[in-house]
């Protein structure tokens, strides 16, 4: 397989025309179908990152293509002075699949960060003279806009952009820290159930249930960021369902429309009464094109049994990874089709690069972790090809050391 050289003309164009916010892209992709994508040189890759947990149905799925095409040809955008059938359908569907039920409300926007910005404003609306603090977890990730960034528990990401919006305190993900931090001065606790960007790191057993208990007792909003874990990826519609709890609010984005940009904040019960008319909004948010696509993707996830598939295939992938005989593999984390591989040495980028050369897309969220987040539609073939190519990648890195 040929490797794209530094002389590739697209690299120069990228380098001169794109903002210097990201590193140089790894490949120049031109097409996708099912769980595979192809680059400009005709190389094929099994996509087990799915645009970072976004392409729930894989690439160019007929349901996605038809939903976008049909709605674009019917009514794409109208402004928030008007409602549309797909918008109401999606709000009602989210009330059902989040478990929020009666009393649920949805706010629509265009990305994960924006969903968390709405959650941040929700937290401010639960504030008073005495109740001011917003708690979030060290090493958590909630997005790059200023409010979402202030919630993000990675100082290196925040520091160049300080001062941050005031009031956010980060705590450790331990029962002790939780017990010490939650009282009547706290407005909200914002957390991921599995820290995706931190390398797919699980919360301690019982942490979420304890958080629910304490926040309920003290009138604190429990806001769960399911932007990466939600929409079936962990083997439940939303990962808090594994713990049998309901939050006061959930933020959703990434996988909900299979690649069409959309985000949502869904509130439960009393949290649904906090916003009043005119306090928040977005021009594109909740337009019929985005919401129709989300409806179609969610309908397909439901009718094709993809939440169940995520649970079953997740177990299979875990077994495949554990069967690889490499001294570099330390542990397997995560749930369903959000999997982290903890390495014994800081060579995650080398393994991810070797995987790419072997025709497999995964990523390295940090020096010693790999992230695997394939489309929810993977079957026997994809599991087998994944095993072969990941084994090849580990063999290449083991051999080079
Ligand atoms: C990706 C992600 C975000 C940010 O979403 P964007 O759409 O990139 O703004 C926020 N929280 C979590 C947990 C994420 O994984």
TrEMBL record:
Keywords: Amino-acid biosynthesis, Aminotransferase, Pyridoxal phosphate, Transferase. It comes from the Bacteria. The keyword Secreted does not apply. SUPFAM superfamilies: PLP-dependent transferases. PROSITE patterns: AA_TRANSFER_CLASS_3 (PS00600). Pathway: Amino-acid biosynthesis. Its cofactor is pyridoxal 5'-phosphate. Belongs to the class-III pyridoxal-phosphate-dependent aminotransferase family. This is Acetylornithine transaminase. It comes from Herbiconiux moechotypicola.
């Amino acid at each position: 397989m040929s490797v794209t050289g530094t002389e590739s003309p697209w690299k120069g164009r990228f380098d001169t025309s794109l903002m210097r916010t990201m590193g140089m892209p790894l490949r120049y992709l031109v097409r996708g179908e099912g769980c595979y994508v192809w680059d400009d040189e005709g190389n094929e890759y099994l996509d087990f990152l799915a645009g970072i947990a976004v392409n729930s149905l894989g690439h160019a799925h007929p349901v996605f293509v038809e939903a976008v095409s049909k709605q674009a040809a019917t009514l794409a955008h109208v402004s928030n002075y008007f409602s549309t059938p797909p918008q109401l359908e999606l709000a009602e569907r989210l009330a059902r699949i989040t478990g929020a039920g009666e009393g649920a409300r949805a706010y629509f926007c265009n990305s994960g960060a924006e969903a968390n910005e709405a959650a941040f404003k929700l937290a401010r609306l639960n504030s008073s003279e005495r109740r001011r603090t917003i708690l979030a977890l060290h090493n958590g990730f909630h997005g790059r806009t200023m409010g979402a960034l202030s919630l993000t528990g990675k100082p290196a990401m925040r520091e160049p952009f300080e001062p941050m919006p005031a009031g956010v305190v980060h705590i450790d993900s331990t029962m002790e820290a939780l017990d010490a931090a939650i009282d009547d001065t706290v407005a909200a606790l914002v957390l991921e159930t599995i820290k995706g960007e931190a390398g797919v790191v699980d919360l301690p057993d019982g942490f979420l249930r304890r958080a629910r208990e304490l926040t309920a007792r003290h009138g604190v909003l429990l806001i769960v960021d399911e932007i990466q874990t939600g929409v079936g990826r962990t083997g439940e519609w939303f990962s808090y369902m594994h713990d049998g709890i309901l939050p006061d609010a959930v933020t959703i984005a990434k996988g909900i429309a299979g690649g069409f940009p959309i985000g949502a904040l869904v509130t439960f019960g009393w949290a649904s009464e906090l916003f009043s008319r005119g306090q928040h909004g977005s021009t594109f948010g909740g337009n019929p094109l985005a919401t129709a696509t989300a409806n179609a993707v969610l309908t397909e996830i439901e009718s094709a049994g993809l939440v169940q598939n995520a649970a079953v295939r997740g177990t299979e992938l875990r077994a495949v990874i554990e069967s690889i005989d490499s001294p570099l593999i330390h542990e397997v984390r995560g749930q369903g089709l959000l999997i982290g591989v903890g390495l014994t040495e800081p060579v995650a980028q080398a393994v991810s690069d070797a995987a790419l050369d072997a025709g497999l897309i995964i990523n390295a969220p940090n020096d010693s972790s790999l992230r695997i987040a394939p489309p929810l539609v993977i079957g026997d073939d994809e599991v087998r090809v994944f095993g072969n190519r990941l084994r090849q990648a580990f063999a290449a890195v083991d051999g080079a050391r």
